[in-house]
Design a protein that fits this description.
Elements: H1 11-24, H2 37-44, H3 48-60, E1 64-67, E2 71-74, H4 89-95, E3 100-111, H5 114-120, E4 127-137, E5 140-150, H6 167-174, E6 179-188, H7 191-196, E7 204-214, E8 217-227
Antiparallel strand pairs: 1-2, 3-4, 4-5, 5-8, 6-7, 7-8
Helix pairs in contact: 1-3, 2-3
Length: 248
């Protein structure tokens, strides 16, 4: 198929809009592999740098995806984006080049208390696993974790010690979630939290409570407490609207 550029200015925007129309109209469906930048530059009669700028804008907009050594493809449409994602603390620490460790401080199976039942959407007395621990990077504490796991939903957790692998990393692999709920608060460290995170009493902390489900079944509730000066949340999201022109 030969694409004809539409009248627009500057040149890279003409090309960008033409490629965008091919994607939005379905002429280039999801997964379609584009010709190389050199081939497209020859087709449009432009410099390769101009073509690269047009394609780069569409990659930034999420309409195209570049795969190393494979080429450029039409991206899968994003139906929904979440402001907050569930991150693997251990993986993020290691990716930063630091040594990760999880210090498990408590682990026990117990019948769900009234508080447990409310947090996990289970009946009182249902078997749950309680875990307390501290996440460390290069030996320094970076987060305190309090977690409940619904053993009716993930019975395999009953035999896990969680001495080296933190429960969050394990759950991401063994009990993938389909729905999540976050609650975030700014709090002052109580005596226990200050001691575990090596903070001055009443220091500012960021506390996140999260619940996850797999289908209609609750999997886990967790409360993570971070030193306030060492953690921040960044959310980027897109308004749900009809396709629009991408401005480079």
């Amino acid at each position: 198929m030969k694409l004809e550029p539409k009248a627009a200015s500057p040149r890279y925007l003409e090309i960008q809009h033409t490629l965008e129309d091919a994607i939005v109209s379905g002429t280039w469906p999801t997964g379609h592999k584009l010709p190389s930048e050199l081939e497209l530059a020859e087709q449009f009669g432009c410099a390769r740098m101009t073509m690269g700028r047009a394609i780069g804008a569409l990659v930034e907009a999420g309409l195209l995806v570049r795969r190393r050594r494979a080429g450029t493809f039409v991206a899968t449409p994003r139906v929904e984006e979440t402001v907050l994602e569930i991150h693997d603390i251990a993986a993020e620490v290691r990716a930063s080049g630091r040594q990760y460790a999880f210090e498990r401080r408590a682990r026990r199976v117990r019948p769900a208390t009234a508080s447990d039942a409310a947090r996990l959407d289970v009946g009182a007395g249902a078997p749950v696993l309680l875990i307390h621990g501290v996440h460390r990077a290069n030996g320094a504490p970076i987060a305190m974790e309090e977690r409940l796991i619904n053993l009716a939903a993930t019975p395999q957790a009953r035999t896990q010690a969680f001495l080296e692998t933190p429960p969050g990393s394990w759950l991401l692999q063994e009990a993938p979630w389909t729905e999540a709920e976050h609650q975030i608060d700014a709090v002052n460290a109580d005596e226990e939290t200050a001691g575990l995170l090596v903070l001055a009493p009443a220091s500012a902390c960021l506390r996140m409570e999260r619940r996850t489900w797999r289908g209609a079944v609750s999997v886990t509730w967790v409360r993570l407490t971070f030193p306030g000066d060492q953690h921040r949340l960044v959310g980027r999201f897109r308004a749900q609207a009809a396709p629009r022109r991408v401005v480079g």
